[in-house]
Amino acid sequence: MTAQDGSFLAKLDSIYVEDIMVERSKIVALDVSAKSEELLEVLKNISHSRLPVFEGNLDKIIGFIHLKDVLNRVGTVFDVRGVLRKIICVPPSMKVSGLLVEMKAARVHLAVVVDEFGATVGVVTMKDIVEQIFGDIQDEHGVDAEPFFLCVGSGKFKVSTEIEMKEFLDKSGLELEAGHGSRTLGGYILSIAGKVPLVGDVISSPEGVEFTILDADNKRIGVVLVDASRVVS
Hints:
It contains 8 helices and 12 strands. It is of the alpha+beta class. α1 (3-12) crosses α5.
C-alpha cells in the first residue's frame, strides 16, 4: 500500500457504508427477466451508467449491467444474464475504508448493502466512495461522458451532448436549420436556450423538437432526452 493509499483510507475510516449508500427507496433497478422494451423505459430515466439487476425483488440483487454493454443490443432479443457483472454484499455498519479494500480486491464497482436478515437496504458504487475523497465527480454517462446515441422509442433518443452535431443529425434523421452552425449538440442546445439549462428543463427547437435535460452542471449540459416524435423531418 502506498502512502497515498494510506491517506485515502484514513479519510474513509470515520465514514460508514450507511452514510453514503443510495437507500432502497431510491434504487433504480431492472428485473432480470425484463424485455428490451422494459430496459428502454428504465434507461430513459437514469443518467448514471450502472444498473442493479434483481431476480423477483430488490432483496435478490444478482448483479448489475453497464450501459455500454447494452447500448448496441437495444431493440434486439438478448438475455440480461449474459451481460451481468458481479457484485458483493456488505453490511451498513462496515467502514467505507474496508469497503474500498474489498471492492478493489474483488474488482467490482457496485456493492449491495444488506441488513442482518439479508434484506437489501441500499447500494454503493465505487463512484460514491471516490466522491468522499475527491468531491463530486461525473458518472461515465454524465457531463464528462464519452459521446453516445441511444434510440429509446419512436422519434425519441437519449444522447450525450458531446456528440458532434453532424453525427446527431445523421443518426436521428432530423433537420434542424440552426443546428448546422454548432459543432456539438450541447452547443446547439445552449444557443437556443440562451443559458445553461437546469436538470429537468425542457428546451424546444424552432421545429418543435424537445430536449429534456437529464444531466448538467453549472457550466454545461451532459445528457438529454430528445423527443422528436411530433416532428416530421
